[in-house]
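user: can you give me the structure for this one chain? tokens are fine.
assistant: on it. calling the predictor now.
[tool input]
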Amino acid sequence: MRKKKKVESVNVKGFGKKSNIFFNILIALVAFSCVFPFLFVIVISLTSEQSLVHNGYQLIPQEWSLDGYRYLYTMKDKLLQALFITVFVTIFGTLVNVTFTSTYAYAISRPTFKYRRFFTLFALVTMLFSAGMVPSYIVMTNMLHLKDTIWALILPMALSPFNIIVMRTFFRRSVPDAIIESAKIDGAGELRTFIQIVLPLAVPGIATISLFAALAYWNDWFNALLYIQSDNLVPLQYLLMKIQNNIDYMTKNAAMSAALSGVGGSIPKEATRMAMVVISTLPIAASYPFFQRYFVSGLTIGGVKE
């Protein structure tokens, strides 16, 4: 009997090691499939336009070139200004979004708050129904007079119902009521309890919704299309979209292409397009590892259903 038990334990251990190797290889393949497209885009952005025309997309191109980045460098002043606007809107907008979201979620997570059900349903309804683009535009322009201002890029996304639900569940699961009651017994008010007691315990959840908000602000271009007219307030994503539209127009216009050929040759359309993808994606992708250790725990705890 003992020998059989030993043999069974050895078989279980051997099967466990094999399954671990299998799942490690599987996860590695999935991770590579996620990273490979971005690496391929970088390679295409460094490929000459002639090589792309004659040979198509290749993992190892026959001719390397920086023409796409050189073409964007000719508009470096506009790109730097747009990058500054995008970074400012992303940082400040994320702070505003996290502040509003966390305070709203903390209020509806407390059982002592009398109107918590009403405000919870209020947040859920906004996830299902929307007034539409026209009323939003009228409110932003005629009532709030925010057209062609930096606030038009920040306030429309200052509150996220999905992040509110995530943080509400996170507060209820990770912040015990006993800690809050002990803080109140010691004389702490609601604001002091929230800042000194609750927020340090909610760092994973705060990091999770901060990443969501930062991605939304960084990738936003539609609000700029609606509300921004000044060139000094154009964000990076909207500027790159305008550059792409201009490139498509100039490459289709034979007369304009001929006029440009005397200045600097034909425009590297595909390489420039991929270079714009790299410029718009690389900064936010580089910041992701700093949130990674908080992201998993924050998302899993905040996603637990009651």
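assistant: here you go. The chain is about 75% helix and 0% strand. The chain has one domain: 67-306.
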